[in-house]
Design a protein that fits this description.
The chain is an alpha+beta fold. It is about 40% helix and about 15% strand. The strands form four sheets. Strands 5, 6, 7, 8, 9, 10, 11, 14, 15 and 16 form a ten-stranded antiparallel β-sheet that branches. Strand 8 and strand 9 form a beta hairpin. Helix 5 crosses helix 11 and helix 12 packs parallel to helix 15. The chain is elongated and about 85 Å long. About 40% of the residues are buried. This is Restriction of telomere capping protein 5. One of its GO terms (cellular component) is cytoplasm. It comes from Saccharomyces uvarum. It is found in: Cytoplasm.
Length: about 575
Amino acid sequence: MGQSSSTPSSNEEKSSNLRKFTNNGDVLAYFNHKAQQQVTVPELVSLKGNLQIEDMNTPISHKSLCSVLHFPQKHTLLSGIVTNMLRVLSNFPLMNSSYEPITGYGLLKCILLLNKGRCGKYLKFKSYDQLKLLFISLSLQKTDKEELSEENENNVKKERNIKQIIANFDDVDSEVLYVPADFMLQFLSWLLILSVECPTSNSKMGNSKIYDQWDSFKISAMNLLRTMNPDVVSNTESHLITFDQFSTSIRTVMPNLLKPLENLMEHFFYLENDLVNYDTSLSSVRDSRIMTPALLTQLSTVLPRELFIQKLQSLYIGRKSGFSMRSLQAKVFKWMAPSILIVSGTRITNSDEYAAQKNPRYRHFLEEFPKLKDSDQKMDASYTNKKKTTFAVYIDDPWKVTNKDYFGDMNTRIIQISPRQDIYKVNRKGTIYFNTIGGGIGIGDKQPLIKPASKRFIPGNVSLTFDSTLEFAVFRHTGYGGSLEPGSLSVERKEEDSFFELHFLIQDVEVWGCGGEKELEEQMKQMAWEEAESKRRQQINLRSLGEDRALLEMAGLVGQNRGGGSM
C-alpha cells in the first residue's frame, strides 16, 4: 500500500543488532533512520507540520515544544520536567552519554518509545522495560554544561553493539536513581489532567480551563504519590521516589496511568483538522462533592476506560437525598447496569475517646462491631498521619435486597482511593449484602447476626462495612482467608500480613451508574470509527504524485533520491 522504504529481513535485523559502533553520532543516526522506517508517510508529514519544520534534524525550541504540548505558561516547573524527560528520550539509546538537543528525529523516537505497541516494533527487543526507560528519563538531568566536547568523544573509542546499548540502558543503574517527590507530584498531576484533556490519540486539545483545577488534581496525585512512598504525608520536600516504588505501584494498582501520555505523543501524527471533539464524563459530575473530575481520573488509572467513554449517571447522592438505606434503595435499585459506590469520611483515630466524649451512637456501634485491637495493627505513615479516607466499590451486578444471601460477581472490587491507592479483588461470587433489617451494607462480610435484643457484625478478613444509618463505616484488612484478597500493592510488597482497620465517620456516600454493555459497545464502535476516519483523512494518495508531490517534497520523502516511509 503506497510507497515504502526497504525493510531489512530478519537476518539483516539480527546482523544490525550485533553491529558495533565507536561513535555516538553513528549510533544516533542509525536509530534515527530506524525510527523513520516505523511510521507512515502521512504520520511523518503531520509530525513535521505540527513542529513547522522541513528537516528532521532541526532542533525544536523549548517554546515550540511547550506550545504543541499545550502547557500553560505559568506551569514552568512542569514544562521543565517534561521537556527534560523528552530530551533524555530523544537521545535514545544514548540517554546517559549523549546531550544532543531535541530534534524532529528525537521527538519521533520519543513518540515510538512511549507507545507500547510501537516501541516493541521499533526495538525488536523482547521483554523491554518501558517503565524503567521512563523512570530514567525522569531521573537524569540533561544540561548543556554536561555536554561532552567533540574532541573528548572522539578520543573515547569504546566498541559497543546495539543489543548491549539497549539492554543496559546506556550503562544506567536504575537502582541508584531517584526522582524528587515534588517533581513526581507535578508529573502525576499532569498525567491526571491529560486523562481529561487528551482521552484519545485523535481528540482535540487546548482546554486551558482544566488547568484552573490543578489544585484538585494535585490532591488525587498526592494519593498516587503516597502509594509510591507512604512516608510522603503533605510535604513533599526531602522525599524521594525510587524506581522500585515507581514501577511496583504502576504495575499493580495504576496500570492505566501512562495511557494519556501515550495519547498525547500520538497527537503529533495528526494535523489539527484531523482531530475530533470528544466529550468526557465530566459534565455529569459537576454537582458532586466527592465524584470530582480529579477523583474520576484517579479511578481511570485502575478501572477500564468506560469511565470516560460514556456519561456517568448520578443515581444517589447522600447529601441531596438523605443518608439512609431506604433512600439509596429507592434511587439505585432500578439501575440494571454496573455501578460505583463511593464513600468518604474522617477517620476516627481514638475510638474509645470518641465514643465516650463525642458520639454515643458510635459507642453503640462499637458494642456491635468486634473492633481489632490496636496492638494488632500495623499502619504506615500514610494512614497514621492522614484522617481523610475514601473508598470506591465497583459492582457489576444490579443491586438487590439480600437479608440472608449475597450478590456481586467476580468483577466486584474495592478500590482504596485515599490516603493511598490499592485494589482488593474478590475470589468468589456473592460478596455483597444489602440488609434492610438493621444489618447495613457489607462488602466481604458475612451477614450480621440480628436478634430482637442484639446485633453482631461479622467482618471479613478484607471487608468494608456500613452501619444501617450510613453514619459509620469500617475497612478491615487482616490478610488472607476471606472472600476478598489482600491489597494488590500489599501483596506485591509482601505486606499482606500487616493488619489494620480504619473506622471513619461517613461524610459522603454516592452511587454512580456506569452504563450497560450495549451502550458501551456502541460507544467503542463510535470511537473506533472516528479514529479510522481521522486516519483516512490523513492518507495521501501516493499514486497521484503529480498532485501531491509538493507535499511529499516538503516532508523530504521524495525527490533528491529519497524513498517514502513505510505504509
